[in-house]
Write a structure and sequence with these properties.
By secondary structure, this protein is α/β, with parallel strands linked by helices. The protein has helices at residues 10-21, 33-42, 59-68, 84-92, 105-119, 152-163, 171-178, 186-201; strands spanning 2-6, 26-30, 47-51, 74-79, 97-100, 126-129, 132-135, 140-143, 146-148, 207-210, 214-217. It has a five-stranded parallel β-sheet, sandwiched between helices. It has a four-stranded antiparallel β-sheet with strand order 6-7-8-9, covered by helices on one side. It has a two-stranded antiparallel sheet with strand order 10-11.
Length: 219
């Protein structure tokens, strides 16, 4: 799942981003409305955590443009205003959910994950294939009953492959779903992560390389 955090308070933005990354989510950060709109043009996001009171372009306008462009991005709006009328106004302009500040991080995480499920194929929280069991709610994985101790990136890559249900996932799609924005090193990073993941999954090999196409989970 890919998330865009739009928050002008740098400390809060990084706190949210790091917390979400610990859940194996790919997270980008924007510090104002203009930067958020540029990132939305350049990449696809499942969820946007959007502060309402932004410099540059107001959060309300960012939300309106997301709705007008018919993006699949779900919007969780944050604001210091806790009045019911403020929450209603945010939802009426197109936000999918609303969370007043100050908030409890666990609640924010639960809301982000719930919104993200709306943009992903409808699959149960526990996915099984080829002896691999992936519990996306508890963030645990095993193969043939043997626990797999995966890094955040390894878990994200495995989840992306498992959700494809045997279909080929391209290198670009893996980057889109499992990594934050960057450019130069990602192709090699995918190879390294897949190599480590394959070693942890053990034999017989289950992650197949499809030449000039990508990767898939075998039967």
């Amino acid at each position: 799942m890919r998330v865009l955090v739009v928050e002008d308070e740098a400390f809060l933005a990084e706190m949210i981003a790091e917390g979400l990354r610990r859940e194996a989510l790919a997270v980008d950060v924007a510090c104002d409305g203009r930067e958020a709109l540029r990132k939305l043009e350049d990449g696809e996001y499942d969820v946007m955590v959007l502060d309402r009171d932004l410099p540059g372009v107001h959060g309300d306008e960012v939300c309106r443009r997301v709705v007008a462009a018919r993006l699949m991005t779900r919007v969780l709006m944050l604001t210091a205003a806790g009045a019911v009328r403020e929450r209603v106004a945010g939802l009426r302009m197109g936000a999918d959910d609303y969370l007043p500040k100050p908030f409890v991080y666990d609640e924010l995480l639960a809301r982000v994950l719930a919104l993200g499920r709306r943009t992903l194929p409808a699959l149960p929280p526990v996915i099984e294939r080829g002896g691999v069991v992936l519990d996306t709610a508890c963030r645990t994985a095993s193969r043939n009953g043997r626990p797999l101790h995966l890094s955040r990136k390894e878990f994200a890559v495995l989840e992306t492959l498992m959700r494809a249900e045997g279909a080929v996932v391209s290198n670009d799609d893996l980057i889109e779903q499992a990594w934050e924005e960057d450019t130069s090193y990602l192709t090699n990073a995918v190879r390294v992560t897949l190599s480590k993941l394959r070693a942890k999954l053990g034999d017989p090999p289950i992650v197949e390389t499809v030449p000039r196409a990508g990767y898939r989970i075998g039967a």
